[in-house]
Amino acid sequence: MSFRYDAKIRAARAILNISRSDLAESCGISATIIQRIEGGYGSVSSANNNLLEDFFKRNGIIFHENSIEFSSEKENIQKDKHLKKLTNEEIYNSLKINQDFTSCFSNWDEYTKNNIFSVIRSFNKLGLDIWYVDMGGEIRIGFKDENEEKGKPFSFIKFKKEGFTIDFNRRVSKYSEYIKRFPISFGHGTLVDKCFVDNLEKLSSNGVELPPVIQSSSEGRLPTDYPPL
Q1: Which of 4, 7, 113, 173 has the lowest CB atom count within 10 Å?
Q2: How many whole angstroms separate alpha carbon 69 and alpha carbon 57?
Q3: Over the stretch 41-54, which tens digit does the pLDDT of each residue have?
Q4: What is the pTM of this model?
Q5: What element of type H or E holds 151?
Q6: Which residues fall within 8 angstroms of residue 170, CB to CB, at 6 or more apart?
Q7: 20-27 and 31-38 helices cross at what angle (nearest 10)?
Q8: Do residues 224 and 132 touch, judged by C-beta distance below 8 A?
């Protein structure tokens, strides 16, 4: 039997007995987009289709061109990314592609330099992607495919001459419960200190739950894995 794409999504959601809103939250897209897809109202971006198909694949449903295949075997969303421990030199070589970073880094003492290395290493150990945006050397941390334009940031790092700051993406209301798991006890714009770094290192060693769309899709990419800005 041949299935249209909208029918495949409806059938897959019915198999898992999952609501549109729950599917939207798990995939990091809006329920309105899923409603459009299921209603067959024209095309949507391939990126959204990929997010949906990746979610169903992790839950044992494979999309083929004209059908879906159901298996009782499910992929574990808490996948082990087998990332090797980055050295300070490897981290620096990845970050130095941005002039704003190198300008600030040259003014830092060894304490601050070691802090940025530890923070990047900890986020990488969690399997998160790390990339630059064209905003004065701002770094974003979360999920971003190599060919994706914006990505889905969970955290932000900004560089200053006296150090660097870190904050989390509070604009996404559904991220609030995940943000609480992180050891951040200072306000926006406060320089990162050793206490935060130590707690983040412990967190990354033990593992922490992240938003599903980020946790399942990020691959520990570094700034040098992306095309130049």
Answers
A1: 173
A2: 10
A3: 766 677 788 888 88
A4: 0.68
A5: none
A6: 176, 179
A7: 120
A8: no
